[in-house]
Specification:
Elements lengths: L3 E5 L7 H11 L7 E5 L10 H7 L14 H12 L5 H11 L3 H14 L11 H20 L1 H12 L3 E2 L1 H8 L3 H13 L9 E2 L3 H11 L1
């Protein structure tokens, strides 16, 4: 009777029956005023093969949003902390979160709650205040990946956020082969970066993992 929008978030966590239905439906929308929008992490190791199949279907139009730019992050920071937020402070928030919108919003909310003034004098508190704010997201994801993933992430945090995989494996007390497998999972989960040395994708993620050790 009217155009219809079907919107599904976190599709990588959907149950197999729901994903099979979405796949069935997506192949039968031609000629109908129906838009199916599904958001999720295609490479997430927690996801199912069905979600990856849906996300890579030739009929699907895939959008891969980039991290926020410095200017975009500054808009978010000033929207939460006031238009007079210092440029250096906004840059520090962007650097700490890597432009991840979720982490940036959590950081800004935590800074606001803590009463941190968005000036150059508050630069040192950005990661300190923000780490607990994003910890629940990071630690929950680590827990789902298993004890070896948690041990390796903690080892990388202790080693300063940039470590050879062999050394990190010894600190984590897991063998090198398992460490390589686990490191791939941590990269896919958006916790470690794709660099040659093991390092966290955002400084605030490293701080969250390290603070959990204390």
């Amino acid at each position: 009777r009217a155009p219809l929008l079907l919107s599904i978030d976190d599709a990588h966590w959907a149950d197999p029956s729901s994903l099979r239905f979405l796949g069935y439906l997506s192949r039968r929308l031609e000629g109908l005023a129906v838009l199916l929008v599904a958001a999720g992490r295609p490479s997430d190791p927690e996801g199912t093969g069905l979600w990856r199949e849906l996300a890579t279907d030739p009929a699907a139009k895939v959008l891969r949003p980039h991290p926020l730019t410095r200017a975009g992050a500054a808009i978010v920071v000033r929207g939460g902390l006031g238009d007079d937020a210092d440029d250096a402070f906004c840059r520090a928030c962007h650097r700490a979160t890597g432009g991840n919108p979720l982490f940036l919003r959590e950081l800004v909310a935590a800074l606001d709650e803590a009463g941190v003034a968005p000036t150059s004098a508050g630069l040192g508190t950005v990661s300190e205040v923000g780490a607990p704010a994003v910890a629940r997201f990071v630690l929950r994801r680590l827990e789902r990946l298993g004890s070896s993933a948690t041990s390796l992430a903690r080892a990388v945090a202790v080693l300063g956020g940039e470590a050879d995989i062999g050394l990190a494996a010894r600190v984590a007390e897991i063998d090198a082969s398992e460490a390589r497998t686990v490191a791939d999972l941590l990269v896919q989960a958006g916790i470690l970066g794709h660099d040659q040395l093991l390092g966290f994708v955002h400084p605030i993620v490293q701080a969250a993992v390290y603070e959990d050790l204390l």
